[in-house]
Amino acid sequence: MKFGTKAIHAGVHPDPTTGAIMTPIYQTSTYVQRSPGDHKGFEYSRTHNPTRSQLQDALAALDNGKHGLAFATGMAAIDCIVKLLQPGDEVISTNDLYGGSYRLFTKVYQNYGIKFHFVPMHDMTAVEAAVTERTKLIWVETPTNPLLNVIDIAAASAVAKKAGALLVVDNTFSTPYLQTPLELGADMVMYSLTKYMAGHSDTVMGAVIVNDDELHQRLSFYQNACGGTPGPQDCFLVLRGLKTLHVRMQRHCENGRKVAEFLKAHPKVEKVYWPGFEDHPNHAVAAKQMRDFGGMISFVLKGDRQEDAVATLEKFQLFSLAESLGGVESLSGHPATMTHASIPAEERRKAGLSDSLIRLSVGIEDADDLLEDLQQAIG
Ligand code: P1T
C-alpha cells in the first residue's frame, strides 16, 4: 500500500458495533470483566485504550514498523526511551537538538548517573571518537532543531551496531512522509506528534515506533508503569491529523522551497539553513535519505544582531511568533530565548546557534502571501 492510502486507512477499522467509519473516542477509564481475568483485551486505560491502540497501529504502519507506542507528550516518549538505561551507561547525542531534549538529558538523567556526550553528528568521525564500552544509546535528530543539519542515519546505525548500542532517530521534523529511519537501520523512531503528525496545533503528544518485539515489551512496560500515556481525545485528534499528512507535507515542502529561495536571494539575509539547497553541507545525505526537504527553515540577517532579529519577529503578520512547529499555519521563533533557552549560551554557540537566528515553520497557506509577509517584515 502506498503512503497516502496508508495515512488514511492503516491501523484503523470501522467500529464493530455501529460501523462508525471514524475511530470512536473511547472515553473510559476501565472495562467490565465477566469473571476475573476474563475480558476483551482491555482492563484499564493507562494500560490499553481502543482509540490509542488504533493510533499506535496507524503510527507503526506509516513508519513501516511493527509496534507503535503513544505518549502524552514528545518529552514523555523521550523519557520512556531513556528509562531503558542504567546508571553508568553513556549516550552520544547530536549537539544541535531540541532544547527540551537537552534539558531532560542534562538536568534530569545526568543526576541518575547516565553520561551524555554531545557531538556534531553530521561529522560521523566525531560520533566514532565518542564511543566507549559503556555507550548504550545514540540519539539522532535529523534534520536538527533548529540548525537543519542532516545526520546520516545509515552511517549512525553502522556505528551503533559496532558499539552494541541502540540507535534512536527523533523524526519530528521529517515525519515518515519524508524519511523512514527503521528502514535505514534505526532501532527506534521517536516523534513529537504535536507537530506535523497531528498537524493542526491543537494537541500535544508523542510516540515511539520499533520493530523488535523485546524492545517493544520493555518500552510498553515503562509506558504503563510510569504512566505518561495520552487520553483518547488526543489520540483521536492525531488519528484525524494523520489522514492528511501526505497532502500537508507535500505543501509544506513546496512552500518551504519557495520561502528558502526567497530568503537566499534577499539582500538583507546573511545565511539560510535549509537542507534542500545544493550547497547545504549535508545536502547529499539529505538527498539520499529524505524524499523531499521539509518546511523548516532558519536564517540569520546581515549584521548578525539579535535586536534586528527581534524587530523582524515583531513585524511578522502571518508568521505568528510562537513556540512549536509543523501546524498548518506558519510560525516564527527565536530559538535563543524560546525553544533553546535551556541550552547554556556557551553550548549553543559551540553548536553554531547564533542569538540572532530566526526559525520558521512554513505552513500551508498561499505561498505568495507568505513571501509578502517576509518582504514587509525584513524590509
Ligand atoms: O513538545 P513535545 O510534544 O513534548 O515534544 C518535544 C520535542 C521533541 N523533539 C523535537 C525535535 C521537538 O522539536 C520537540 C518540541 N519542540 C518544540 C516545542 C519546538 O518549538 O521546537
Structure, explained:
This protein folds into 2 domains: 240 residues, Aspartate Aminotransferase, domain 2 (3-Layer(aba) Sandwich), CATH 3.40.640; 134 residues, Alpha-Beta Complex (Aspartate Aminotransferase, domain 1). Helix 3 runs parallel beside helix 4. It starts with a helix and ends with a helix. Strand 5, helix 7 and strand 6 form a beta-alpha-beta unit. By secondary structure, the protein is an alpha/beta fold. It has 14 helices and 12 strands. The protein is globular. The chain has a 7-stranded mixed sheet, with helices on both faces. The relative contact order is 0.13. The chain binds ligand P1T. Ligand P1T binds next to helix 3 and helix 4. The site of ligand P1T has 18 residues, from helix 3 and helix 4.
Secondary structure topology:
Layout: H1 3-9, H2 50-62, E1 67-71, H3 74-82, E2 90-94, H4 99-108, E3 115-119, H5 124-130, E4 135-141, H6 153-163, E5 166-170, H7 175-178, E6 188-192, E7 206-210, H8 213-226, H9 232-242, H10 245-265, E8 269-273, H11 283-289, E9 296-301, H12 306-315, E10 320-321, E11 331-333, H13 345-350, E12 358-361, H14 367-378
Parallel strand pairs: 2-3, 2-4, 4-5, 5-6, 10-11
Antiparallel strand pairs: 1-7, 6-7, 8-9, 9-12, 11-12
The protein binds ligand P1T.
The site of ligand P1T has 18 residues, from helix 3 and helix 4.
Short description, anyone?
With 379 residues, the protein is an alpha/beta fold.
Mean pLDDT: 98
- The CATH architecture term of the largest domain is 3-Layer(aba) Sandwich
Biggest β-sheet, characterized?
7 strands, mixed
Main β-sheet, spatial strand arrangement? 1-7-6-5-4-2-3
Question: Which cofactors or ions or other ligands sit in this model?
Answer: ligand P1T
Under CATH, the homologous superfamily of the largest domain reads: Type I PLP-dependent aspartate aminotransferase-like (Major domain)
Give the H and E element order: HHEHEHEHEHEHEEHHHEHEHEEHEH
CATH class of the largest domain: Alpha Beta
Secondary structure category: alpha/beta
Q: Indicate the low-confidence ranges by residue numbers.
A: none
Shape: globular
